Amino acid sequence: MSHSSIRPVAATQDICGEGCVWHPQQNAAFWTDINRGLLHRCSLANGSVETWAFDQPVTAVALTTQEHLLALVLSGRIVLWDSFTHRETDVLFRLPGWPALRCNDARVDPAGVLWFGTMQNNVGPDGSTAQVTEWQGGLYSLAAGGGAKQWQSGFGIVNTLAWSPNGETMYFGDTLANCLYRGTFDSAQSILESREAFFADFSRGLPDGSTIDAEGYLWNCRFGGACIVRIAPDGSIANIIDTPMRNLTTCAFAGGDASTLLFTSAIDTTHPDDSGGSLFSFETGVRGMLSTPLRL
């Protein structure tokens, strides 16, 4: 598919834009720049952008059942943040291995439980990026008011957290292994019951963040691959959306009919003409699944 309908939403020059989510009540997109420790908010009505800085890299954003509160995933902690007062109101989790380890991608399952991944910390105090050389990543769940539970370990970079429309399948991935997995999921009890390779060794880049549409197709951003690939429930490739930026990082559906795909990107310093580092949108022509809020 052509990238002719891709349009820039906010030119924030992110070193590594990530964690985007659409907030329906505010009609705004929230996303982060991991390396600079920033949270952005863009009004989709008028394009205005606000930005807030934190003392740690910010890796993901999740809605909650309280409209004004967001769950922010920072490298070493997960907090509730008030979008009206712009202050942290509660700490839900502290990562024991920080700063050697850090949190990464995060999404909320159909029951309102937050799932997140960890990895070797690759962001320096000055915002520089280092290579990930150790397979220390784990997959966790966190219910508000409860403790975190580790489900699996031994990953390089845990990325992509998504669930099928019926809630019976969970998808997650390991960027370093170039593999997306799927497992049987009990959406009533938030239990992951298995793991098998779902989409592996695709030649265009590495798997980063994903979202899912109402037909059960996974939309996976390919870091270094200059594309988003739409993957059918049987693991076959349905579409490839070519993009003018190489490093696609994560995506989320937005809009009244949930057919607009928002996606973040990282700057590619090896290609001066690369247009990454901004928030973009793309009209998909299909209905997506909107983000589930964390149950407080």
Summarize the structure.
It is built from no helices and 25 strands.
Main sheet characteristics: 5 strands, antiparallel
Alpha-carbon Rg, integer: 17 Å
CATH topology: Neuraminidase
Tally the beta strands. Answer: 25
Structural domain count: 1
User: What number is the mean pLDDT?
Assistant: 96
Structural class: mainly beta
The level-1 CATH class: Mainly Beta
User: Span from first to last CA?
Assistant: 40 Å
**CATH architect. name:** 6 Propeller
**CATH homologous superfamily classification:** TolB, C-terminal domain
How many H/I helical runs?
0
Shape: globular
Q: Percentage of helical residues?
A: under 10%
Which blocks of ≥5 consecutive residues have pLDDT under 50?
A: none
Order of helices and strands: EEEEEEEEEEEEEEEEEEEEEEEEE
Strand content: over 45%
List keywords for this structure.
mainly beta; 25 strands; four-stranded antiparallel sheet; globular; five-stranded antiparallel sheet; single chain; 296 residues; 0% helix; Neuraminidase
Description:
The protein has a single domain (7-283), classed as TolB, C-terminal domain (Neuraminidase), CATH 2.120.10.30. It has 296 residues and is an all-beta fold. Strands 14, 15, 16, 17 and 18 form a five-stranded antiparallel beta sheet that branches. The protein has a four-stranded antiparallel beta sheet with strand order 1-25-24-23, with no helix packed on it. The model has no long low-confidence stretch (mean pLDDT 96). The chain is built from no helices and 25 strands.
